[in-house]
Amino acid sequence: MIVVLKPRATNEDTSKVVNLARKFGFDVNISKGAEKTIIGIIGDNVYERREAFEALNCVEEIVTVLKPFKLVSKEFHPKDTIISVGGAKIGNGNFEFVAGPCSVESMKQMEVEAEFLSGLGVKFLRGGAFKPRTSPYSFQGLGVRGLKILRKVADEHNMKVVSEMMSGQDLELFEEYVDIIQVGARSMQNFRLLKKLGESTKPILLKRGFMSTIEEWLLAAEYLFHHGNDKVILCERGIRTFEKYTRNTLDISAVPLVKSLSHLPIIVDLSHSTGRRDLINPLSKAVVASGADGAMVEVHPDPEKALSDGQQSLNFDEFEATYRTSMNLHRMMEEFIWNQE
Asked: According to DSSP H, which parts of 164-207 are helical?
């Protein structure tokens, strides 16, 4: 249930609603806008207590939220959320690339990557240090050493680190070395991990599971919110279908659909969604046109020698072409919208 307070409601008014909700044993989440305060009230049989809240003079409206996800819904937070990381922003018109190799392989590799990407204007450096691989014989990543390499080269080039965490036991380590903690597709419904990340001070990049519905994905984000972390970025990375020509099937419809349901920013993983480097450039245009807030791309100095996912990684020339085309298209769309207004 969403309780909307009247314009210019005071802190005392907010406290009245909060105290009443807690008296009934409900959870409370407050969103303060420029003009109105919105209070989300969550709990069993919450609508049976609706009249008690309607009786408060400070309450303007009560909105019923029938969706199973509450805190990440548009009803609770009508304005799009912007995630800011040291001045770099994702969401609400801020289109950014998250780029880098599938796996951190060496200091030299990452120094070359970071110099190239930062020179183009990329602010977010991705790289796997702990790798969830289907085969136990595949390269599993450099672990802690990989995180330290990422942090060092990112700091030298004024970039932000994005890397995947698989175990809640590693939270302290990721808090130290990583700016945005990624939850991979395989971990999207690892609820113990989500609960632990609810304690994190870092933004969470939540990938959609390749067999998960949009509702299940948003409920995973709800776990993060419910346990204390409201800094969430969604990432569509393709779903598994009967199609064999691509690694996964890019669900581009997820972008506008999620934006109609949730206030969270959403980016698209162009590499995992198809598993083919030749499709990344053309699909990047579709991602921009769909209204996404960014794109994730695997980039490697020499994809043929990559220790993981070389077949879906772009070389530097390929990524530069994709990056420039995408950013130019985004600017053109922004100018068109601005002129229409």
From this structure: 171-177, 191-197
Residue burial 84-95, b: 16+ Cβ < 10 Å; e: rest: ebeebbbbeeeb
Q: Are 71 and 29 in contact (CB under 8 A)?
A: yes
**Tens-place pLDDT, residues 55-69:** 999 999 998 888 889
Comparing 46-55, 204-213, 234-243, the range with the smallest average pLDDT is 46-55
Contact 119, 96 (CB under 8 A): no
Angle made by CA atoms 148, 192, 207, in degrees to the nearest 5: 65
Q: What is the pTM of this model?
A: 0.90
Full DSSP string of 296-319: EEEB-SSGGG-SS-GGG-B-HHHH
8 Å CB contact between 113 and 314:
no
CATH number at residue 51: 3.30.70.1140
Domain count of the fold of the chain: 2
Shared domain check, 207 and 129: yes
Could you count the other beta carbons within 10 Å of the beta carbon of residue 248? 18
H or E element that contains 83: strand 83-85
